[in-house]
Write a structure and sequence with these properties.
The complex is a heterodimer of chains A (about 350) and B (about 750).
Chain A (H helix, E strand, L loop, with lengths): L2 H4 L8 H24 L4 E9 L2 E9 L2 H22 L7 H8 L1 E3 L3 H16 L9 H12 L10 H8 L7 E2 L4 E4 L11 H16 L5 E4 L3 E4 L8 E5 L8 E5 L2 E7 L28 E6 L2 H14 L1 H9 L5 E5 L5 E4 L1
Antiparallel strand pairs in A: 1-2, 2-6, 3-5, 4-5, 6-7, 7-10, 8-9, 10-11, 11-12, 12-13
Chain B lengths: L6 H16 L11 H4 L2 H7 L5 E6 L4 E6 L2 E8 H4 L11 E7 L4 E8 L9 H12 L19 E2 L4 H20 L9 E2 L9 H7 L3 E6 H10 L4 E4 L23 H5 L10 E9 L3 H8 L1 H8 L7 E8 L21 E5 L2 E3 L6 E4 L11 E7 L11 E11 L4 E10 L6 E2 L8 H8 L1 H19 L1 H5 L2 H22 L6 H13 L3 H5 L2 H16 L3 H7 L1 H15 L9 H7 L2 H15 L1 H7 L5 H6 L6 H16 L3 H5 L2 H10 L20 H5 L21 H6 L6 H16 L9 H9 L8
Antiparallel strand pairs in B: 1-2, 2-3, 3-4, 4-5, 7-18, 8-10, 9-16, 10-11, 11-15, 12-13, 12-16, 14-15, 16-17
The chains are: A alpha+beta (about 350), B alpha+beta (about 750).
C-alpha cells in the first residue's frame, strides 16, 4: 500500500474505499437499467363490464400482470357492491327503495356521500343543479307520450304541480334516515352516481399506486398522463356524433352535457336538462364540457352551468378550483371559462 | 376477465322492473301485428339460421323460429315486450332473434323516434353496426360486453338505451317461454323433449351399454373360484377347432341352442349385449320407447315413479325365468339395481314387457320396462349401478353368483340445475391464484420450519447463510417481482379504513396472496414479533439485504449510528406511519402522495418501471442500504413502524442469550447484528429485530462465542493434560483451534 492510498479522504475513507463507494453507487442505476431491460415491460390491462347499465371499462398501465389482474378483481368486487346501492334495475337497491318510499333507514355511507355532493353542488350553482327534478321528467315523458302532444311542452299547470316537488334542500340526510320532505319527491342520481363510482374506483387505484389509468364507469376519469408522457386525449362527441373536438386531460375527469342528448320531441327544444326554476328544458347553450378533478363534480357542475348559462358559469367555476368549462354556444362558437 | 353486472340476477326482477317503469304509460297499441312487422328480409337478418316462423303466440307475443321441424329459437319485438323508450319517450321497436340457449341471433331496429337518428342515415348504419356485435351475445350477461368501448366521451347514446331495451325484452321472452320451472336442487327434467335418434341418445350418455362375452363370464367365474356344473345358459366349450358346432348360435337364437351345454362357445361370443336407461325423462323415454308407449306406461303409475328400460340381445337375457316362480317371490334374479345403500330387486308386478322396438338401432329382441316405486329411496339424479348376476351350481351343489356391475348416471342434459348466483369476483381470484397459493404455502411451511428448528439451523453457519440467502432471493424475485405479493402500508390503511368505508369483504378477499401473507404476518407478529415479515417476507427488505450482502462481499465501508443517536433515528418510522394513517382519515387526497414514502410500488410491484423520480428515490434508499444495513427498514419504513408497535404484544422470544452477553462483558452478538438491534447491555430490542438469526449463529459457534470457546478450551486442555483418561477430542476442533485462534472480543 502506498502512502497516497493510505491518506484519508475528507470522509475518513481511503481513496481506494472512496472509489469503491462511488462505483457501487453508480452500479445501482445500471442494475436498474438492466432490470428494466430484461424485466417485464408495462402495458395496458383492460377490464370490461357493465356498470349501472352502461358499458364500462378500466384500463391500467402496469408491468406486473398478476398485480393488475388482482387489482381489477378487487375493483370489480367494489363496483358490484356500489351497484347494489345505486342500481335502478335492482328493486332492492337503496336508491330504488328511497324513491319508492320517500325515505330510507340505514342508508349506506356511499348514498349519503352522493346526496351530500349533490346538495353541495346544488348550493354552489344556486340551485341550477338539482337532483330532485325527476318529477319534471315524468311530466315531460307523459306529455310527449300522448298522441298529438303540444310541441311547446307540458302545460304550466302540470309543471307547477311537478315543480312543487323539486327542491334539493328538501332531502334530509341529517338524521339516521334519508328522508324526502314532501311526498312524491324523487331523486335522480343519473350521472352523479356513476361519477361517484368512477371517483371511488379511481381513488382506490391511485392509492394502489397506479399512475396511468382510464376509468370509464359511466363517467370518465383519468389518473396521470398517457404512458407516452402526453395528456390523455379525450374525444368529445358532438351533436352529429362526430368526435373532432379533443380535450387534453391529465389527472381529472370530463363530462359533456348537451340538450341534444335526450330529447322529447323532434324540434329538440324539449330535453332532459331542466331548469328547476321554470320547470322547462334549459336553452342556454348547445353543450358544455366540464373538466374537473373529480367525475362527480364534472357531471353535476356541467348540468348546473348548462342550466345557469354562460354568464353565471365563471361564478360557479370559481367555487371549484381547477375546474374549467368549454361552452359551445347556440351559434356554434366555443368559449373556455375557468 | 369476466364480470357480470346486474344481468342474470335481474331476470327474476325484470318483469317487475319493466312493469314498474312503464305502468301508467298509456300508449295506444298503434303498431301492426308482429308477423306483419317481421318481413322476410328482417327475419333473414335477425335469424339467419332459421327458415320459417311459427304463428304469433303468447303474451307478450313472440314467434318460434324453425329450421325445418326443429325449433331454433324465438323472434319478438322490443315494442311488444317492454315498450322501452330510447331517448325519445315514444318507444323504439327492434325485432330480435334469440336462440333456445338465450344467445341473440340478430337485432334490427325498425322504428325509432330519436331526433338525432331521424334523418341521419350514417348514424342508423352505425346503430346497425353496433348491434351486429351482439350476435351470439348471451342474455344472461355472463360474458364481457362484446362491443369494446372506445374512449369517447359524449352525451349518452341512444344505442346504449336500445341495447338495454333489447336485453330486457329478450330476458322477458326467455323467462316466458322457458318450460324449465325454477328448481332449488338438481331435479330430473321430466318434460323437456327434442327428437333424438339412437346414436344421439348414446352420445348424450342416456344409455348405458355393456357387451358381456362368454369369455368375460368364464373369467369372472374363474376369478371367483367357481367351477360351474350347471348354468341357465351354459358356457359350453371354448374349443371351436376340435368340435365344429352343429349350427352357429350367434345367428340361430333358439332356446334349444342356448341351453345346449355341449355347444362350442368362443370367448368373444356375446353372452349378453345389455343396454339400459332411466326413461322417466321424456327426453330419453319418448325417444327410446316412442311417445305412445312412454305415455301408456308412465301415466298409470303413481307420481314419483321412475322407469328403467332394459334392452338386450344374446342368450343370457336380463329377465331369466325366476320371475315366473312364485316360490322365488316372482323376483328377477339376473340383475339388481344398486345405489349406495339402496338395493332394488324387481318383481313381476314392477315389470312391463315391451315388444321389440323398431328404428335405426341395434337389434335388441328383449326389451322391458321396470318401475321404481316412489318410496324405494332411489335418487334419479344420482349415479347407480345395474348389477348383472350370473348364477352357477358348483360341483358341491351350491349356488354361486357372480356380479357384473354396470354404472349409470343420467346425463346432465336432463337434470335441471338450480340457478346459481354467479360467484363473486374474489372466488375467481382464488381459483386463478391456486398455483401461486401452493408456492406460497410451501414457502411459509418452510419458513415456519426454520423458526421451529432454528437451533439446528443456526448451529451451522454455512447452512444458515445459504438457506437465508436463498429464501431472501425467493422473496424478492418470486414473491415480489413475479407474484406481486408485497405487503405494504397501503394494506394496513385499507384494513384500518374498512369499518368506515363500507367496503365489503370481497374487496379484500380478491387479493389471495396478500390475505395469506397478512394472516401469517399477524400470527407471527403476535407469536414472535415483527421480524418474521420484515426479515424474511418483505421483498423490498430482501432487496436491501441482498444488495448489502454484495456490498459486504466487496468490503464496502459501513456506517452505523451510535447507540444514543440510533434510538432517535428509530422514531421517524412511527412518524411516517402516523402521517400515512392520518392522511387516510384526515386528508384522503394526500394519501397517495404520502404513501410514496414507501418505495415498494416502484422497486417491487412495478420492478422499477415507474418514472425516474420514483426510481431515483428507491435507488437512494437501496444505495443507503449498501452502507447502513436496511437503512429504510430501520428508520423510515411506515409498515415497519406499524409492525414495531404491534411487536410490543409478542408472546415468545426465541432468541437465546447468555449471562455473559452485554453487561456480562461480551459484545460479539451486538456487533454481529446487522441492524444493530442489540444494545450495549446485551438486550435485544425486539421491535427492531429482523429475526435474521445471525446472533444465534454466533450463540452456537464454539469458535467465536466466548463462553463456548472458553468451555471448549478447558475441555481441550483437560484432554491434553490427561490423555490417558480417554476424553474424546474432535480432531477437527483441535486442528481448527490450533490453526486459527478464536476471534472475538474476549474481554
Amino acid at each position: 500500500m502506498t502512502l497516497v492510498d493510505a491518506r484519508p479522504t475528507p470522509l475518513g475513507l481511503s481513496r481506494r474505499q472512496a472509489l469503491k463507494v462511488v462505483a457501487a453507487t453508480a452500479a445501482l442505476p445500471l442494475g436498474v437499467l438492466g432490470l428494466r431491460a430484461i424485466g417485464p415491460t408495462p402495458q395496458f390491462h383492460t377490464w370490461n363490464g357493465e356498470v349501472l347499465g352502461a358499458v364500462s371499462s378500466l384500463t391500467l398501465w402496469h408491468s406486473n400482470a398478476n398485480f393488475a389482474r388482482t387489482t381489477m378483481q378487487r375493483m370489480a368486487s367494489e363496483i358490484g357492491r356500489l351497484e347494489r346501492i345505486f342500481s335502478l334495475y335492482r328493486p332492492d337497491s337503496e336508491l330504488r327503495r328511497l324513491n319508492a318510499d320517500g325515505m330510507l333507514e340505514g342508508a349506506s355511507r356511499d348514498l349519503r356521500l352522493v346526496l351530500t355532493s349533490a346538495r353541495f353542488i346544488g348550493l354552489a350553482t344556486g340551485g341550477a343543479f338539482d337532483p330532485t327534478v325527476q318529477p319534471l321528467w315524468d311530466v315531460y315523458a307523459r306529455h310527449f307520450a300522448s298522441p298529438g302532444a303540444d310541441p311547446a311542452g307540458p302545460s304550466g299547470f302540470a309543471l307547477d304541480a311537478a315543480r312543487s316537488l323539486v327542491g334539493y334542500r328538501d332531502i334530509d340526510t341529517d338524521g339516521g334516515a334519508i328522508r324526502f320532505a314532501r311526498q312524491g319527491m324523487q331523486a335522480t342520481l343519473n350521472g352523479i352516481a356513476q361519477g361517484y363510482i368512477t371517483d371511488r374506483i379511481a381513488d382506490l387505484l391511485r392509492n394502489e399506486g397506479f399512475q396511468h389509468v382510464v376509468v370509464e364507469l359511466g363517467e370518465a376519469r383519468v389518473l396521470g398522463d398517457h404512458p407516452e408522457g402526453r395528456p390523455w386525449r379525450v374525444g368529445l362527441r358532438d351533436r352529429a356524433g362526430a368526435t373532432d373536438r379533443m380535450v387534453d386531460l391529465s389527472n381529472g375527469a370530463v363530462a359533456l352535457h348537451g340538450g341534444y342528448g335526450t330529447v322529447f320531441d323532434e324540434s329538440g327544444r324539449n330535453h332532459h336538462i331542466f331548469d328547476p326554476v321554470t320547470g322547462r328544458s334549459a336553452q342556454t347553450m348547445l353543450d358544455v364540457a366540464v373538466v374537473s378533478g373529480r367525475a362527480t363534480d364534472a357531471d353535476a357542475i356541467g348540468v348546473g352551468i348548462y342550466v345557469a348559462g354562460e354568464e353565471r358559469a365563471s361564478a360557479i367555476l370559481a367555487q371549484f378550483p381547477g375546474t374549467r368549462a368549454i361552452i359551445t354556444r347556440r351559434d356554434g362558437t366555443t368559449v373556455t371559462i375557468g | 376477465m369476466r364480470f357480470r353486472a346486474f344481468g342474470r340476477r335481474c331476470i327474476a326482477g325484470v318483469v317487475v322492473c319493466v312493469a314498474s317503469l312503464f305502468a301508467g304509460n298509456a300508449l295506444a297499441q298503434d303498431r301492426p301485428p308482429l308477423n306483419e312487422r317481421v318481413t322476410p328480409a328482417i327475419f333473414e337478418t335477425v335469424f339467419p339460421a332459421a327458415d320459417r316462423l311459427g304463428e304469433v303466440e303468447g303474451q307478450p307475443p313472440f314467434m318460434r323460429a324453425y329450421a325445418g321441424d326443429e325449433q331454433l329459437g324465438f323472434v319478438f319485438s322490443t315494442y311488444d315486450v317492454v315498450r322501452a323508450p330510447s331517448y325519445s319517450p315514444r318507444p323504439f321497436d327492434a325485432i330480435v332473434g334469440m336462440d333456445l340457449a338465450g344467445n341473440l341471433t340478430g337485432v334490427q331496429v325498425i322504428s325509432f323516434h330519436d331526433p338525432y337518428l331521424t334523418g341521419f342515415p350514417e348514424r342508423v348504419r352505425q346503430l346497425a353496426e353496433f348491434f351486429r356485435f351482439y350476435v351470439g351475445y348471451n342474455i344472461s350477461g355472463q360474458r364481457a360486453f362484446p362491443a369494446q368501448p372506445d374512449f369517447v366521451q359524449g352525451t349518452t347514446i341512444s344505442a346504449r338505451q336500445m341495447r338495454a331495451g333489447v336485453l330486457d325484452a329478450a330476458r322477458v321472452i326467455d323467462r316466458a317461454t322457458s318450460d324449465r320451472p325454477p328448481v332449488t336442487e338438481p331435479t330430473l327434467d321430466l318434460d323437456a323433449f327434442t327428437v333424438m335418434n339412437w346414436g344421439e341418445l348414446m352420445e348424450m350418455g342416456a344409455l348405458a351399454h355393456r357387451a358381456v362375452t362368454f369369455g368375460d363370464v368364464r373369467e369372472a367365474l374363474a376369478e371367483a373360484g367357481v367351477t360351474p356344473v350347471e348354468m341357465e345358459v351354459p358356457l359350453g366349450r371354448p374349443d371351436l377347432a376340435l368340435n365344429p358346432p352343429r349350427f352357429d348360435c350367434r345367428f340361430v337364437a333358439t332356446r334349444a341352442c342356448e341351453i345346449d351345454a355341449n355347444l362350442v362357445r368362443e370367448n368373444d361370443e356375446i353372452y349378453t349385449d345389455l343396454y339400459f336407461a332411466l326413461v322417466t325423462p321424456a327426453m330419453i323415454g319418448r325417444n327410446l320407447l316412442g311417445s305412445d308407449l312412454y305415455a301408456r306406461y308412465l301415466t298409470p303409475q303413481p307420481p314419483g315413479t321412475h322407469m328403467l328400460a332394459m334392452l338386450s340381445a344374446g342368450p343370457y337375457d336380463f329377465r331369466g325365468l325366476g320371475f315366473y316362480r312364485d316360490e322365488n317371490g316372482n323376483r328377477f334374479d339376473r340383475f339388481r339395481l344398486v345405489q349406495g345403500e339402496t338395493e332394488i330387486v324387481f318383481t313381476r308386478d314392477q315389470h312391463q314387457m315391451v315388444g321389440g322396438l323398431r328404428g335405426d338401432r341395434p337389434r335388441l329382441p328383449d326389451v322391458s320396462v321396470f318401475f321404481i316405486a316412489p318410496n324405494s329411496g332411489f335418487d334419479p339424479v344420482a349415479p347407480f349401478e345395474i348389477v348383472l348376476m350370473v348364477t352357477a351350481t358348483t360341483e358341491t351343489g351350491e349356488q354361486a353368483t357372480i356380479d357384473i356391475p354396470i354404472a349409470y348416471q343420467v346425463p346432465d342434459d336432463v337434470i335441471l340445475m338450480p340457478f346459481v348466483e354467479p360467484a363473486p369476483p374474489w372466488v375467481e381470484a382464488w381459483a386463478d391464484a391456486t398455483p401461486q397459493l401452493v408456492i406460497l404455502g410451501i414457502a411459509l411451511v418452510i419458513l415456519t420450519g426454520l423458526f421451529i428448528f432454528q437451533k439446528q439451523l443456526t448451529m451451522s453457519r454455512r447452512a444458515h447463510a445459504w438457506i437465508r440467502n436463498a429464501f431472501l432471493l425467493f422473496t424478492l424475485v418470486w414473491l415480489g417481482w413475479i407474484a406481486g405479493g408485497q405487503l405494504s402500508i397501503v394494506h394496513v390503511v385499507n384494513y384500518l379504513k374498512a369499518p368506515f368505508d363500507g367496503v365489503d369483504i370481497g374487496f379484500y378477499l380478491a387479493e389471495p396472496l396478500i390475505v395469506v401473507i397478512g394472516i401469517y404476518v399477524l400470527l407471527s407478529l403476535i407469536l414472535i414479533g415483527r421480524g418474521v415479515f420484515c426479515g424474511w417476507l418483505c421483498p423490498f427488505g430482501a432487496l436491501q439485504e441482498l444488495t448489502a450482502k454484495v456490498a459486504r462481499f466487496l468490503k464496502l465501508p459501513t456506517w452505523d449510528p451510535p447507540e444514543r443517536m440510533q434510538r432517535w433515528m428509530w422514531l421517524p418510522k412511527y412518524g411516517t406511519a402516523a402521517l400515512i394513517v392520518g392522511a387516510a382519515f384526515v386528508a384522503p387526497a394526500a394519501l397517495a402522495a404520502t404513501e410514496e414514502i414507501e418505495p415498494f410500488k416502484t422497486a417491487i410491484t412495478s420492478v422499477f418501471t415507474r418514472p425516474w423520480p420514483y426510481v431515483a428515490y428507491a435507488l437512494v434508499l437501496v444505495g443507503m442500504g449498501l452502507f447502513t444495513e436496511r437503512f429504510f427498514c430501520r428508520f423510515l419504513c411506515p409498515l415497519g413502524g406499524v409492525l414495531a408497535l404491534g411487536d410490543r404484544l409478542h408472546i415468545f422470544t426465541l432468541l437465546k442469550r447468555r449471562p455473559e452477553c452485554g453487561s456480562g462483558g461480551c459484545h460479539l452478538c451486538e456487533r454481529s447484528c446487522p441492524v444493530r438491534a442489540i444494545e450495549r447491555d446485551g438486550k435485544i430490542i425486539m421491535a427492531e429485530c429482523f429475526q435474521c438469526l445471525d446472533c444465534q449463529v454466533e450463540y452456537y459457534d464454539e469458535q467465536r462465542c466466548p463462553p463456548l470457546a472458553k468451555g471448549r478450551k478447558v475441555r481441550e486442555r483437560a484432554s491434553r493434560a490427561r490423555p490417558q483418561m480417554g476424553v474424546p477430542v474432535p480432531a477437527m476442533a483441535m486442528s481448527a483451534a490450533a490453526s486459527k485462534p478464536a476471534m472475538g472480543p474476549d474481554r
